[in-house]
Structure formats: structure tokens, C-alpha cells
UniProtKB/TrEMBL annotation:
Species this chain originates from: Lactobacillus corticis
Keywords from the named record: Cell membrane, Membrane, Transmembrane, Transmembrane helix, Transport
Membrane topology: Multi-pass membrane protein
Protein localization: Cell membrane
Record protein name field: Xanthine/uracil/vitamin C permease
Chief location category: membrane
């Protein structure tokens, strides 16, 4: 047996490639596609947290390392094609609501993230998170998947310049006089045509072609350099440990509660949506979900120590799943690329919003297909499902969409005489979401 055969055999045994009807080549392409789709976080996260006073270089390195750890854990522990990295919603809340609006120093806020991460990990260890996710009604799971699809499509439309803010209507169509918008349009049509022709790797091919066109036309700037050494994490590493006195501050407990709730349901909703897309769900449940949640919790805990906001399962993983990713090898490849990115970070500047936007829009279409599984003929189910779907893009927040569903589902099911079909956990979630909504509107 040669080296290549031995390597292939190890991969098949570790990630069950044959069992999942996939190949190492397809998984590598999926990992590369996922990485390209989410690489922006390496630059966006330092920018957002930098506004809170944190060292951007340290945050860059912490972002990359937490993503590497999260992806490796997800790949080897859960064998899921889902990538993990610091979440955009959490870092925005950290900077603009906690640090800037409430006047809490970033060091104390990071300690709050650490405490929430510890609670997260304990709950994952005792399978509390797993029990909660399994208890979510099947129709709401389908709604979450579709809602996330429409949400990321909206992100793509916005990032690509096709949808812009409008004073009278909130949103409106973008200007077609902006050259970069046409770059997005080119990418959308190219990927859509390749998808219609069932070309393998259509999304990745479309993204590469869009990048090349952007560089050729000057719409995307050539990188200033090729290699750079990863900055030190010294300014942020371990800072949370020296500010654990926040536990005596009631205001900080409110902050910790919000970090916990938002991170919990962002990950839950994203996991369900991506598992639905990848065909991982079995009888409405996710196998190995405990391992997946533990991977998420440990990466969040490590990230808080290194100096970054909570990590989360990335919706951009759907791009990799769409090109055939079905196992943890996809996540491992994504992790390897994050390692490489720490040395070649200047090259990532060519992956602009106009490059990722077409992929997000097309993947949104694929994920929205779960709408057909919802029982639309039963209003007590249709209404909360509908609110879940539209709540995510209209509030620009996955957790709010999930909240809308849980705040209406048990009430309407009870009104329809189907109270026995609502389990106790759903009622507990109903109360928790009321608490979350109250805190979100009174904490600032």
C-alpha cells in the first residue's frame, strides 16, 4: 500500500467519507469554499473590536486561532462540515452596546464573555443544550433553516450593493451606476448558470472568476504584500482573568445573560439550518449534536481567554455544504487554511464583499427550500414559522427571529387546543425569551 492509499484510508476511517457518499477531493473543495466565504472575519472582527479600544493586531491573531481550534474540534469531535469563528452579532453587541453605550471597559466586557463561556461549556458537558435543541418543534427547525437562508441572502444583497438603506422605505435597490455592483451581478449570474447546469464546485468557480474579473478591472486592489508575520496576542491574552470581580456587579450579570442567550440560539439555529441543508438530520434530530455543541463551547471559552468575542457556527459553512461538504474533513481543511492565512493575510484582501455576496445569495436559495416542509395549512404552526423566517432578515439578527417563533408557538398551539403537543422545555424557552427581550431593551 502506497502513501496516498494509506492517507486515503485514514481519512475514510476518520471522517466516514464513503458512508457519507463523498470524497476527500470534494471535502477539500468544500473546506476551501467555506474558508473563502468566511475569511472576511479576519479583518472585520479586529475592526469592530478595535472600536472598543482593543489592539487590532492581537484580535486578528486571536480570531484566527479561535477559528482554527473551533474548526478542528468540529471536524474531529462531531465530524460535521461546519466551521466555527467569532460571530459578527456578538462582536457588534460587545463594542457598540456594552463598551461604547454602557461605558464598560473592554477588559471587563471580555471577562463577561469568559463567564458566559464557562456556563456554556458546563451546559454542553451535561447535555443541557442538546436536550433543548432536540425539544425544538420540527416545523420551527425548518423555519430556522429557511430564515437563515433568507438572512444570508440579504447579507449578500447588502454586501454586494444590490440592496441599500433607504430613508423612506428602510431598504431600496442599489445604484447600477456603481461598478462594483456589476461585479456582484456577474458573480450571481455565473454561479446560477453553473448551478443550473449542475457543474461541480459551481459556487467556488464563480467566486474565483469574480475575483479575477475584479482584479483585472481594478475594482479589487492587488494586495500590497504577500507574507506577513502574525501579530502578538500579548495585549489581550488572559485579560479576562484579572477582571472576574465583575461577578459582584448586577449590571454585568445582565450583560452575561445577553451574551449567553444570543450565542446559545445563534449557534442552535445555525446548526439546525446547516444540518438540514447537509442532510444530517435523522428523524428531526442531529446525531452527534453533543460533540458539535462541545466544540462550539470550547472554542468560545478559548477565544475569550485569547481576547475575542464569542465564537459561533458560521452560516457561511452553507457555501461549503452546497459544493458537497458532508463530513468533518471540510471543517479541518478550513482550519488548515486559517493557519495558512496567518502568514498570508495580505492576500485575503482580494476577497471583498462583492466576491462573497454572489455565493451567499445563491446559497440562500438552497436553504430556503426547507419552507416546503412546514405545515402552512395549520395556522398555529404557520404563524410562528413565518415570524421566525422574516424576523431574521428584518431585524438583522438570527436570535430575534428565533425569539419571535418561540414567543408565539406555545400560545397559538394552546389556543388551537393542542397544548399537550407543547413540551415543558418549549414553555421554559418561552419564558427565557421574554426575559431576553426585556433585558435587551433595558440594559443599555
Amino acid at each position: 500500500m502506497n502513501t496516498q492509499q494509506a492517507s486515503s484510508g485514514w481519512m475514510d476511517k476518520t471522517f466516514h467519507l464513503s458512508e457519507n457518499n463523498t470524497t476527500a477531493k470534494r471535502e477539500c473543495l468544500a473546506g476551501l469554499t467555506t474558508f473563502v466565504s468566511m475569511a472576511y472575519i479576519l479583518f472585520v472582527n479586529p475592526s469592530v473590536l478595535g472600536a472598543a479600544g482593543m489592539d487590532k493586531g492581537a484580535v486578528f491573531t486571536a480570531t484566527a486561532l479561535s477559528a482554527i481550534l473551533g474548526c478542528l474540534l468540529m471536524g474531529f469531535l462531531a465530524n460535521y462540515p461546519i466551521a466555527i469563528a467569532p460571530g459578527l452579532g456578538d462582536n457588534a453587541f460587545f463594542t457598540y452596546s456594552v463598551v461604547l453605550a454602557m461605558g464598560i471597559p473592554w477588559q471587563k466586557a471580555m471577562a463577561g464573555v469568559f463567564v458566559a463561556s464557562v456556563v456554556f461549556t458546563i451546559m454542553s458537558l451535561f447535555k443541557v443544550r442538546e436536550i433543548v435543541i432536540d425539544a425544538i418543534p420540527q416545523d420551527l427547525k425548518y423555519a430556522m433553516a429557511a430564515g437563515i437562508g433568507i438572512f444570508i441572502a440579504f447579507i449578500g444583497l447588502k454586501g454586494g450593493g444590490l440592496v441599500v438603506a433607504n430613508k423612506s422605505n428602510l431598504v431600496g435597490i442599489g445604484s447600477l451606476n456603481v461598478p462594483s455592483t456589476w461585479l456582484t451581478i456577474f458573480g450571481v449570474f455565473l454561479i446560477a448558470i453553473l448551478m443550473a447546469r449542475k457543474v461541480p464546485g459551481a459556487i467556488f468557480i464563480g467566486m474565483v472568476a469574480t475575483t479575477i474579473l475584479g482584479l483585472a478591472t481594478g475594482l479589487i486592489k492587488m494586495p500590497s504584500s504577500v507574507i506577513s508575520v502574525a501579530p502578538s496576542m500579548k495585549p489581550t491574552f488572559g485579560v479576562a482573568f484579572s477582571h472576574l470581580d465583575i461577578l459582584s456587579d448586577p449590571q454585568m450579570w445582565a450583560v452575561i445573560l445577553i451574551f449567553f442567550m444570543v450565542a446559545f440560539f445563534d449557534t442552535a439555529g445555525t446548526l439546525i439550518g446547516l444540518a438540514q441543508q447537509a442532510g444530517i438530520m435523522k428523524n428531526g434530530k442531529m446525531p452527534r449534536i453533543g460533540q458539535a455543541l462541545m466544540a462550539d463551547s470550547l472554542s468560545m471559552l478559548a477565544g475569550s481567554v485569547m481576547g475575542t468575542t464569542p465564537t459561533a457556527c458560521y452560516v457561511e459553512s452553507s457555501a461549503g455544504i452546497a459544493v458537497g461538504g458532508r463530513t468533518g474533513l471540510t471543517a479541518v481543511v478550513t482550519a488548515v487554511l486559517f493557519v495558512i492565512s496567518m502568514l498570508f493575510s495580505p492576500l485575503l484582501t482580494v476577497v471583498t464583499d462583492n466576491v462573497t455576496a454572489p455565493a451567499l445569495i445563491v446559497v440562500g436559495v438552497l436553504m430556503a427550500s426547507s419552507l416546503r416542509e412546514i405545515h402552512w395549512d395549520e395556522f398555529e404552526i404557520a404563524f410562528p414559522s413565518f415570524l421566525t423566517v422574516i424576523g431574521m432578515p428584518l431585524t438583522y439578527n438570527i436570535s430575534y427571529g428565533i425569539a419571535f417563533g418561540f414567543l408565539t408557538y406555545p400560545i397559538l398551539m394552546t389556543a388551537a387546543g393542542r397544548r399537550k403537543e407543547v413540551n415543558a422545555i418549549v414553555w421554559v424557552l418561552f419564558l427565557l425569551f421574554i426575559l431576553m427581550m426585556y433585558v435587551l431593551n433595558h440594559v443599555a
